[in-house]
Amino acid sequence: MAQVKIYGRRSVWGARRTEVSDALHDALVRAWQLPPDKRFHRFLLLDDDDLVAPRSDAYLVVEVVCFTGRTREAKRALVAALYDVVPALGLTVDDVELVILESPRENWGIRGVSGDELALSYRVDV
């Protein structure tokens, strides 16, 4: 399980949600072998004055909230996969930051059950 939150300026990214979502999902599928149909993305786009950072106007913060269980190598693979798609979005490496936030499966409630009772069609321990 992985959910993605994308923070950026509405004026820059509002019309480019699909492009960003496609690029991020491609990185997750390649790095973590998520099924192509498992896309959970939330855009939290802000007014220009609500995002204060010493970066360009195109700056994005990407948070991946997921079940605990992925290896250090898998996390590094996701970082590499994300930064592989940065140029396609017209960004530099300084324009994107990724945070992976892990939580034990029992801390999730999905489809009426605790996450540790959920039968997944894919592996988390990649």
From TrEMBL:
Gene3D superfamilies named among the record's database cross-references: Macrophage Migration Inhibitory Factor (3.30.429.10)
Domain of life according to the entry: Bacteria
Alphabetical list of InterPro entries matching this protein: Tauto_MSAD (IPR037479), Tautomerase/MIF_sf (IPR014347)
PANTHER family: TAUTOMERASE YOLI-RELATED
Protein name stated in the entry: Tautomerase family protein
Phylogenetic placement of the source organism: Bacteria, Bacillati, Actinomycetota, Actinomycetes, Micrococcales
